[in-house]
Specification:
Length: 270
């Protein structure tokens, strides 16, 4: 075991995905903790604007689910994109969820590390089924197979199963009662509903254990061999992988803050 990572280190879906995409990016972002030296994609101002709009949309959704009336929030949807996304969101039918937890954070230990996920929304139906909602403002609708393979899907479902018993009367949640739902503000009629199974849950947790073990054992973090990814990486200048940013929208999630306050986070005890 090396000492490059602090113990315990908190792994999120972003940090695991970063390592999977490019070990060098993980090292620069989470070990050396370097600031971004370059924009991720061109045109830079347009992509920065869309990122800010996406963050504003998430705040609107959070406030609405927290009980603030839609009428009071409507003036905050002050751009064409935000107004469209907001109207699409208000049309989303969540009436089948008898219980809801917005902006829920769950954590669980894994050896000398921790796993952490912050959910946009977790809902429970009257039948005891759980749905994890994640709002996306992508310009393109990703394929379901790509979403299934992403670490966000695997981590979010795993943590709900292992740390979400308090949402289920103290009882473990069966894997077959969990689904991950990606809802796309640009494609409101095309959500991706990715149901879990017991076999898949076992594979996901095994994969997380293996990935965390691999990261903690690493002494070298080379850049990815897939140089096409570098065009959309904000750290590419550190690796001499070019100065011209990629065109369009990178198919990645925004990184989460490195510093995470673990107080008041629900977790499972092993």
């Amino acid at each position: 075991m090396n000492n490059l990572l602090p113990t315990p280190f908190t792994f999120s879906q972003s940090s695991i995905q970063d390592f999977d995409d490019c070990p060098r990016r993980f090292h620069l972002r989470y070990i050396e903790r370097l600031d971004y030296p370059a924009v991720e994609s061109e045109p830079a101002l347009e992509n920065e604007r869309r990122q800010q709009q996406g963050q504003a949309f998430h705040r609107l959704a959070q406030q609405y689910l927290g009980g603030i009336p839609a009428g009071r929030l409507a003036p905050l949807a002050n751009s064409a994109d935000l107004k469209r996304w907001w109207e699409n969101f208000l049309a989303l039918d969540l009436s089948h969820l008898t219980e809801r937890w917005a902006e829920l954070t769950l954590s669980a230990p894994l050896d000398d590390s921790r796993l952490l996920a912050k959910f946009d929304l977790v809902g429970r139906t009257a039948e005891g089924r759980f749905e994890i909602y994640d709002w996306k403002t992508y310009q393109r609708r990703p394929r379901n197979d790509r979403l299934t393979a992403r670490w966000q899907t695997r981590l979010y479902r795993s943590l709900l199963l292992r740390a979400g018993s308090s949402l289920n009367g103290g009882q473990p949640i069966p894997a077959e009662n969990v689904a991950m739902v990606y809802w796309f503000a640009e494609f409101p009629g095309e959500p991706a509903r990715l149901a879990a199974t017991s076999a898949q849950a076992t594979r996901d947790w095994d994969a997380l254990e293996k990935m965390v073990e691999e990261i903690r054992a690493r002494r070298e973090f080379p850049p990815t061999d897939d140089t096409a990814r570098c065009s959309y990486c904000a750290y590419r200048s550190y690796c001499d992988r070019g100065v011209q940013a990629g065109q369009g929208e990178p198919d990645t999630d925004d990184p989460e803050p490195i510093e995470i306050d673990l107080e008041q986070i629900q977790e499972i005890e092993f």
